Amino acid sequence: AGSGAGEDMRTEISTAAAFVTRLLRAAGGVGEEQLRCFRECLQEAMHEHYKHHWFPLVPSKGSGYRCIRINHKMDPLIGKAAGMIGLSHERLFQLLPSELTLWVDPFEVSYRIGEDGSICVLYESPQPGGKVAKQLESRISCKEEWRIGRSSPSKSYNMMTVSS
């Protein structure tokens, strides 16, 4: 007991908060102590915001609710954390990408900068307990099929024998 949904999302939340903090650090002009405070405030705000919207058994459920978004409007969670260290929304828009989408889902944290940017995965972990093995298997087999489709083992074996 004691390990409720809140416990399970710590890694995902700290990954996401650390990522936004790194973006701020890279932009410059924000002190380390402020950055540390920002990261803690953001983690707290996310934890509070997500606690009834975290479904490890159905990781995609609530994904839109948990999505952190900057797109001509500042994400309220980032805005709140920045407010704690005295950064205005205007300043944040200068420091952070003008278009950022960050998806914080059970077992996966990913982001996209720009509307047409590619999606990059920051954190990914296998889903525990095999309760959602069906989903996981289909994802893996999908990737495997793609690999197998590109070069079948027999072809690469023949190429090796030819070259030897």
UniProtKB/TrEMBL annotation:
Domain of life: Eukaryota
Location of the Anti-proliferative protein domain: 96-115
GO annotation terms (biological process): negative regulation of cell population proliferation
UniProt cross-references to Gene3D superfamilies, sorted A to Z: Anti-proliferative protein, N-terminal domain
Record InterPro entries: Anti_prolifrtn, BTG, BTG-like_sf
PROSITE patterns: BTG_2
Record SMART domains: btg1
A GO CC annotation given for this chain: cytoplasm
Family per record: Belongs to the BTG family.
Name the record gives this protein: BTG1 protein
Organism this protein belongs to: Brachypodius melanocephalos
Taxonomic lineage of the native organism: Eukaryota, Metazoa, Chordata, Craniata, Vertebrata
